[in-house]
User: Fold this.
Amino acid sequence: MAHSIAIDGPAGAGKSTIAKKAAAKLGFTYVDTGAMFRAMAVYFIDNGIAPDDVQAIAKACDGITIEIEYIDGQQQIILNGENITGRLRNEETGNMASSIAVYPAVRNKLLELQRKIAFSKDVIMDGRDIGTCVLPDATCKIYLTASVATRAARRYRELVEKNIPADMEAIAKDIEDRDYRDMHRETAPLKQADDAVLIDSSDMDIEQVTDAIIAVYEAALKR
Assistant:
């Protein structure tokens, strides 16, 4: 039987970075749910479907399959048999993904695809509603968070290292606003699952958080 680790938490908590490291240590498949939204966006773009055409988007969802493969240790996203990984991070795809993410038909399709992957493989999946919605029966659930100040500082450092102008107060305000939107959205709001283990990474480094998550998983196996 496949095992699964569900990691939820607010933006900037380090979920993806930690999930990838834990997956590598455990030999699990890391499921990038954000990349799956972007893969659906690529499909709609290629088929000339407008981001506000709700009926066409809902109808098109039935014809989409998304799979995750690894080539030379790098995750590849396969859309209807075609590797479209190289297209996932361009601006057009990102804008489309942001627009379609609110539609129930899109979220329901991804829910189906994500559960299908988790049924056949040992996975680590991160997002906003993995433990509460996508994988309610996960082997273990983590709610990974950090203070707004810590998350803002991390984002500030990232921007400065890329020589991008940054304002700490503006970043913190943006994080607070995003937290509110995520926690109060109508469909699958961000919240800690009742049986999730809370990990606050404010005063922890990446290795410490990774080890903490693996410890929670190993403890769950013994129950």
